[in-house]
Amino acid sequence: MTAETSAPRSAGRKRDPQIEARATDAAIEVYANSGWQGFTFDAVARVSGVGKPAIYRRWPSREALLVDAFDRLNLPTAQDLGSLRADVSDYIAQWIAWYSTPLRPQAGARILIDGPSNAELNRLYTAMVTAPRGTKVRDVTRRAIARGEIPEGTAATAIPDIILGAFFIHWSYSQDRTPEDFRATLDPYGARLLETILSGFSRTT
């Protein structure tokens, strides 16, 4: 056990939510810019201005800190808005906001690579971030089947696979990812994606 991966917590100390917010914001910044190799408590303390002892008291490991930071980012979460169009439109809008926010897509892309090679990071990220949100977005498909909007037997992962894959590829291969210029591509891209999904399913019903 090393000082970098764990440290004892002290009892009875009142938590300061501003410290936690500063540390988790800095965690995303450090991870987006430096990856897992550069993601250390030292680096997070330096960027956040929060002392290392305060970070150690709140998070027992780098993995716990990073996953908590992702969990606080309001990652896109599907909602039940009454119809396939409304559900998908809202979910796409959330991803537009995500990809419009500096550092978030970079951090998200990194954890897709780092997670599978780090068992604890993968376990925490799956349990806290992807599993609960994955259930909610698969429910979009299930509700649409129940309403008769898409065919029986449609894979529950079909809609999230299309949306997440489309945005990731659009971001990955964009020629210009400066925030202002890339943001301008997202609304029309999202609108086309919505109509593509809806028209594709309507032809199979």
Task: Walk me through what this model shows.
The protein is an all-alpha fold. The protein has helices spanning 17-38, 41-48, 52-58, 62-71, 84-100, 104-114, 119-146, 158-172, 179-202. It has two domains: 17-71, Arc Repressor Mutant, subunit A (Orthogonal Bundle), CATH 1.10.10; 84-202, no CATH class. The chain is 69% helix and 0% strand. The protein is elongated, with a radius of gyration of 19 Å.
Give a brief rundown of this model.
69% of the residues lie in helices and 0% in strands.
What about the largest sheet? Answer: none
What is the percent of helical residues? Answer: 55-70%
Number of domains: 2
Structural class: mainly alpha
Beta fraction of the residues? under 5%
- Mean pLDDT across the residues is 90
- N-to-C CA distance: 57 Å
Uncertain parts: 1-12
Tell me the Rg in angstroms: 19 Å
Taken from the alpha-carbon principal axes, the silhouette is elongated
Number of helices: 9
Keywords:
single chain, elongated, 9 helices, mainly alpha, Arc Repressor Mutant, subunit A, 205 residues
